[in-house]
Write a structure and sequence with these properties.
Layout (H helix, E strand, L loop, with lengths): L1 H35 L1 H13 L3 H23 L11 H36 L6 H34 L5
Length: about 170
């Protein structure tokens, strides 16, 4: 069991670093740059979302992080049955896990918003129609809100995952 636990822990940490790093760089640096660079930014975003495996990569490492973390928490808590879950460490990991799961859900929603924006952007030729503009603004508003909550949940998850062992 120690070998399985060690492999799962490494998988959880490495995939979590890749997932969180990618999501936070996208939110804090890439997305604002896309917004600030007009048509060139739109072209870059279209390429990133449609021509690379970025979205699939993020979903894969996010899914691995959540799955490995769930199994690790299950092992530590005797499959969600022990009093360990009520200790400061167990609660810390539980908060981190809940925030991580929420971040994954927000990430899925962000991927859908990005895909919808790319599809709408491909339809717009020249100046958008009033309906296209309205749809574009609604999608951008959704993308901003979901992206913000994704980043917040990832940061909360990182904090609790990194410090939960110190609580006990």
């Amino acid at each position: 069991m120690t070998l399985v636990f060690s492999i799962l822990r490494v998988l959880h940490i490495v995939s979590g670093v890749l997932w969180a790093g990618g999501a936070l760089v996208l939110y804090f640096f890439i997305a604002p740059t896309i917004g600030a660079t007009g048509d060139a930014g739109k072209q870059f975003a279209g390429h990133l979302m449609d021509k690379t495996r970025f979205t699939a990569f993020m979903m894969s490492v996010g899914g691995m992080t959540v799955l490995a973390g769930t199994i690790l928490y299950g092992i530590d808590s005797s499959w969600f049955q022990s009093g360990w879950m009520k200790t400061a460490t167990g609660i810390g990991f539980g908060i981190g896990a809940a925030a991580g799961i929420l971040a994954f859900i927000f990430g899925v929603q962000l991927g859908k918003a990005n895909k919808a924006l790319a599809a709408l952007g491909a339809q717009i030729q020249g100046k958008p129609t009033p309906e296209q503009l309205s749809d574009l603004q609604a999608l951008q508003k959704r993308q901003a809100m979901v992206g913000r909550w994704n980043a917040v949940c990832i940061i909360i998850s990182i904090f609790f995952m990194a410090s939960a062992r110190l609580f006990g």
